[in-house]
Predict the structure.
Amino acid sequence: MGKLSITNITLDCVPKQPFRSTHGELLFCESGHIRIYINQHLYELSPGSVLVIFPEQIILYCEADEQLKLTSVSLSKELLHDLFHSFPSDKVSFLREHNCYSFREEGRTLMCQYLQLLK
C-alpha cells in the first residue's frame, strides 16, 4: 500500500477472521449493513455510515448482508502521523472516541460524489 489507496469492499471480500490493522482506514457504507468489532466495541454500519479505524486496532467483520458495498480509504501510518501531528491533540482524541458517524441523505450523496472523484 502507498500512502493512500481507495478500494471497494463487497461481501465476498470481507475478512472472516479478526486481524490487527496495519494502517488507518475510513470505511464508508454505500449500501447494505454490517456489524464490525473494533477492539471489542461493536459498530453497526448502514448506508451513509462512516467509520474511522486507526492502526494497531483489532478488527472483526461480522454479520454482513448480501447488498454490502463499502468504500475503503486506506492511509499509511506515516500519512496518518503527518496529518494528526498537525491537529491539536484534543481533536485527535475526540476522533478516536467518536469514530463513527451517519450522514443524512444530502451528506451521503456528497460523500459518494467525493469518493468518486478520489477514485
In short: The mean pLDDT is 88. The helical segments are 77-85, 89-97, 105-118. The first helix runs from residue 77 to 85. The longest strand covers residues 24-31.
